[in-house]
Design goal:
Elements (H helix, E strand, L loop, with lengths): L2 H15 L8 H4 E9 L2 E4 L1 H14 L2 E13 L2 E11 L9 E12 L2 E9 L1 H4 L5 H14 L1
Length: 144
Amino acid sequence: MNTHSAFAQQFADTFARLDRDNLHLLEQIYSEDLHFSDPLHELHGLSAMRHYCEALYANVSLISFEFQQCHELTQDQAVLRWIMTYQHPRLAGGRPIQVPGCSFIEYHDLRVHRHADYYDAGALLYEHVPLLGRVIRYLKARLI
């Protein structure tokens, strides 16, 4: 494994260890000029990412990432496949919710400067809101 694929695996290992008490680890894996995006957010800068993570960990009773695959695309790009498990007291009756997804990262000098997450926002959130969830599940069943 070369340095760059080793970095992508190191990124995954560090990200999987994150919790509300060790968000200082973000500084080890992200650059100051980070651009982060997912289906629900777009953030610019390491400071914005830290605030986002602080709010995220404050609002859930559990969140974890299990990285299943890590593929280097070029010497400074990788794709990581993961399953996120989270628990929120007001969603799904407080039961754990699992959402598969993937991340595309670009890095330079062993810091990620572009991180894009891809996942089903309905499976993450909308399907677990009581009334809205029933409507989304009904529509999905009609489309299949």
